[in-house]
Amino acid sequence: MLVTGPAGIGKTRLVEEALREGARPPTSPPAGASAAVQVGRGYSLPDHAAPALWPWQQALRALARRGGRPARISSAVDLLEGAGSCDAPGDAASAAAVRFAALAAVADAVLTAAAEPLVIVLEDLHWADTNTVELVRQVAGGIVDSHLLLIATMRAEAGDVMRELSRLDSVNAVPLRPLAAAAVRDYLTALDPAASTAARAEQVARRSGGLPLLLDAAASDAAAPEPVVVRDLVEALLAQLPEPARRVVQVAALLRSPMDTDVVGQVAEVDGSTAGLALDAACRAGLLTPATSWGGVEGLGFAFTHDPAG
Fold it and tell me: What is the pLDDT of residues 9-35, one digit of tens each?
């Protein structure tokens, strides 16, 4: 299962709710299997400082610590650690073949461990290294004949990876989209029916981008006459960026969307490469989204996910 959507849309919350004990549908485990379903989680990191296959390492080690089938999980962990550190031949073709074989062995061990029901959750796949994504692809390729549920979350802007995985027959894509004004009004009504109006719901939906992450902050101003303020949460997203990138994005907030990298660089007084890296980092943090540039080139411009004027 591939859960996609922008930052703040609720991908992780959806997975957590789906995996709650009371939310699981009653099923009959295979003969001789335990009724308890083990769950292992792994997280990709935005700074790329983690070793290769880090989300998989986290998930499988968590399963190994919980026990139940230690030999099978330990075998997968051992193979995984070897795949992440194996020395490959110098030429590209041989290196690719060695990497493929190592990851195939890990995938086979993971699927063998799933002779009983097993859940692996890999969060933020848009930050994952190439080997992590390739192992997802290999495991997904053989998952039909196993009792494994593999759940990955990722932001929709990681288009190439998302399209590649979505093409697999075994992958069920679950795209999450921003809330419409009607859904926002339902939310406001649940908080305070007297303060919920169609006009206010439209305003909250526009200023929050329809993202659940921003609705609480937006709704806290629902009774105030001034526009909804989401500045605090935008600043929280901004705080995820390194200082040089933060300054570039703050300058970009003064410009009209869509913004071209070169224009942002000139206004921020940095070179185009630095501006591009800063804007890319802001996309990964969920502040910006790729857009068509003023010159009409798709993907070369940037627009804010949420209105920074709020």
Answer: 889 889 999 988 655 544 444 454 455
CA 31 vs CA 28, 116, 117, 137, 237: distances in Å:
9, 9, 11, 29, 48
DSSP lists the bridge partners of residue 120 as 40, 150
Q: How far apart are CA 58 and CA 64, in angstroms?
A: 10
Q: Which residues of 118-145 are buried (b: 16+ CB within 10 A; e: fewer)?
A: bbbbbbbbbbbbebbbbbbbbbbebbee
φ/ψ of residue 8, rounded to 5: 90, 0
C-alpha 198/C-alpha 176 separation (Å) is 23
Q: What are phi and psi of 197, to 5 degrees?
A: -130, 160
What H or E segment, with its residue span, contains residue 3?
A: strand 2-4
Q: What is the pTM of this model?
A: 0.69
Of the candidates 106, 101, 155, 119, the one whose C-alpha atom is nearest the C-alpha of residue 287 is 155
Q: Which CATH fold would you assign to the domain 234-304?
A: Arc Repressor Mutant, subunit A (1.10.10)
Q: Whole-angstrom Cα distance, residue 183 to residue 203? A: 13
pLDDT at 25: 47
pLDDT tens, position by position, 90-135: 667 777 888 889 999 999 999 998 888 999 999 989 888 889 999 9
Q: Dump pLDDT digits (tens) for 256-269.
A: 778 888 888 889 88
The CATH class given to the 2-175 domain equals alpha beta
Q: Where are the domains of the chain?
A: 2-175, 181-229, 234-304
Residues 6+ apart with CB under 8 A from 148: 110, 111, 114, 118, 119, 120, 139
